[in-house]
Amino acid sequence: MATETLTLGKALNTGLRRALENDPKVVIMGEDVGKLGGVFRITDGLQKDFGDQRVIDTPLAESGIIGTAVGLAIRGFRPVCEIQFDGFVYPAYDQIVSQVAKMHYRSQGKVRIPMVIRIPYGGGIGAVEHHSESPEAYFAHTAGLKVVTCANPQDAYSMIQQAIASDDPIVFLEPKRRYWEKGQVDLDAPLDAAYPLHSARVARAGTDATVLAYGPMVRTCLDAATAAAEDGRELEVIDLRTLSPLDLTAAYESVKRTGRCVVVHEAPGNLGLGSEIAARITEECFYSLESPVLRVTGFDTPYPASRVEEEYLPDLDRVLDAVDRTFGW
Amino acid sequence: MAKGDPGVTTRGRRAAPRTKRAATAGEPELVQLLTPEGERIESAIGPDGTEYRADFTDEEYRGLYRDLVLVRKLDAEATALQRQGELGLWASLLGQEAAQVGSGRALRTQDMAFPTYREHGVLYCRGIDPIMPLGLFRGVDQGGWDPNEFKFNMYTIVIGAQTLHATGYAMGVHMDGKTGTEDGEAVIAYFGDGATSQGDVNEAFVWASVFNAPLVFFCQNNQYAISEPLERQTRVPLYQRAGGFGFPGVRVDGNDVLASYAVTRHALDNARLGQGPSLIEAYTYRMGAHTTSDDPTRYRIASEVEAWQAKDPIARMKAFLTKQQIADESFFASVDEQARTESVHLRERVLAMPNPEPVTMFDHVYPNGSPELDEQRAQFSKYMESFEGSAH
């Protein structure tokens, strides 16, 4: 087993390279994905090795990227579109919601749009406005789209390849503040042996409370669990990985054991993923709950100026505070 | 219609005798090969000097006439079906038959079309059963056909969105190496005058231009976007927009089936040869309402409609065929009879369309399905079954 230590960004890059190698119909398209390798270098070196017909620098217009990718998909290609930042996806929103998501349904299954829309998302990098948002609820609310997010290099490597191989249109959210975090990646494991794409996974086993997180918040919650353990409290952290469809099987099982549940995400709380998750856990685990399901989220403000983003974003202390509150109910 | 290659065009030749450079004072040039009175013009020169001709056999002329009459009659039948409550909505093509038949017949078998929701005439000319889009308007489906099987994309209701799909598809044609020869593939994107204000259409222009996509942008300028006149969308003739994007544009008489054919065939052949995109503005008029939900008497005057009535695409073709003795009354009567038979057949099949089973709403949301949806479907089925045998 050849494992290598890679950053999450390099793991994505390696996964994209594999996808280009494995299927000549895979094309990468987006702004600055060619010579520059993307503003985060996720496509670094790919145009050099696969040419500008496979790795396409597009004009600067997001609706154009997604709309032309729809046409390429009808033609039989498998487009992997990069949206440069979360806050720039909205010009493409109509094409994503009204076309990408609905083409298979509209055609009664005769047209497939095997598209992956990669979006670096979330805050924590000290960026200017529009560069730190968490738009996952918009997409998870849309039937016809699937939404996934990775939290570590191994998942980044395998999930991006699984998403590209899937015939479902998939919004692939990349936790940009974690691009530089390193982890072990098994580069030789066959894709069909990888952990299933649309499945949550227990990231840390525990007995006292269940913490549900995804993307950039998984690391935060694991750190919180480490701190809680020092105080004698064992948190079970579940990395949701798939946001649409949700896979709450492990969460139900866990909450029925622990009786306590905290959901954590960067996106604003109002009608965020946490709301849906809390409702489902309440329905499924009602008689096991010792306290209401609590949410730790970004506030219902626009994403604030970066000098105060540390206070906006859920952190270790806010997670632990919520866990404490589940015990004080 | 027998397929030779009647749309012969020559680039750059100067005006010859009987060639019309159709510019009247203050009006942009309009490529026209058949006047409203049914007079044949041998050739016309486009704004870039291209000479357009369309030399058809008598059989082909009669075929074009037959198409025009058929699509108008089927369209009228659909309007009637809506008025009788059998369709939820209909977007009539009345007045735009020549633009659609001309461009539709100009497509070669391998070419791909991306329609709006009004291209029933193009659909017909692709050899597709006119029943195909009626499920959408009846409300029993939302399209449901395979674009690649018919070389005709599903109707797109969001204004202009399909121009980007056409552009991406055309980029794919190029990437597949299917351009550069006479049997190469070309793509046509239909849209209207209102759509030219959409960002997607302008983005499609940019993309098609910089990627040299084998694409023809076919704009049916029918003068109105629901109620808003052309002046609310543009201050320059639409075909001139192409220049700013770096490809040729031409305005054709959209009520002239011969000119619509010649201009489209030329643009498609340029595209398939690898010469990139172009824009055709088919200057026409929506004689009816935007859709059956619309009331055009609120925003336009009768005299304007009457003026366009005099430019009717079918009347001029009939006048031409009669004057040239290409067709006689028995032919016209036989076409009318065929149109009547086909429209009755269409009506019968619309009335026979069953409503879908409610549970089918859960079908085809995802190619790979979703456990969440499976659960909702199961719950819904159980709920529905709970009424079985009851007198609800």
From TrEMBL, chain A:
<dbReference type="InterPro" id="IPR009014">
    <property type="entry name" value="Transketo_C/PFOR_II"/>
</dbReference>
<feature type="domain" description="Transketolase-like pyrimidine-binding">
    <location>
        <begin position="6"/>
        <end position="181"/>
    </location>
</feature>
<dbReference type="Pfam" id="PF02780">
    <property type="entry name" value="Transketolase_C"/>
</dbReference>
<keyword id="KW-0786">Thiamine pyrophosphate</keyword>
<dbReference type="InterPro" id="IPR033248">
    <property type="entry name" value="Transketolase_C"/>
</dbReference>
<dbReference type="InterPro" id="IPR005475">
    <property type="entry name" value="Transketolase-like_Pyr-bd"/>
</dbReference>
<dbReference type="Pfam" id="PF02779">
    <property type="entry name" value="Transket_pyr"/>
</dbReference>
<keyword id="KW-0560">Oxidoreductase</keyword>
<dbReference type="InterPro" id="IPR029061">
    <property type="entry name" value="THDP-binding"/>
</dbReference>
<protein>
    <submittedName>
        <fullName>Alpha-ketoacid dehydrogenase subunit beta</fullName>
    </submittedName>
</protein>
